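1st attempt posting a full record on here, be nice pls
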Amino acid sequence: MALKKLTEKAKELMPLNWGKHPVRTQDEARQSITASRNDVHRMFNDIFEDFFSRRFGENGLAPFTEPLGPFGKSLPQIDLEETDREFKVTAEVPGMEAEDIDVSIGDHCVIIRGTKSGEREDSKEGYHLKEIHSGSFYRSIPLPIEVDRDGVEAYCKNGQLRLTLPKTETGRVAVKKIEVK
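the predicted structure (as tokens):
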């Protein structure tokens, strides 16, 4: 009698598809959940990419989206070169003109600011679209020695800002090259 009760209890605990269909293992279940989650992520990425590329266009504010600085302000990519006589700074500022950029010299640093804004308006039968966008950046570049503030030159052409910052006479002398043995 006890054996019969145990057999009935065991049958109650067995899954209905016992022996008919293979039971999914934990790894298979995890892979299925991961694949579903990846599909959802891909779907949301596609939606947002499509939304932002339509709103701001292919170029839009994209040049200033990476990397982000403090308070979400965007930073242009820069190259800094030092020679015996001067520093040369090249900053990528696509789509910007000279009037969009402000360059100033502080104590042992050069500050580059820029603002770009625009407006798009489109009217067709059945709808009217008006969009306003703007973006800005601020970049402070530390310099190890003083520069001749009166001799600084800045040019902006084809999306590149080029600065030439001549060193002061004391700045040139202050740097001593050390031989490595």
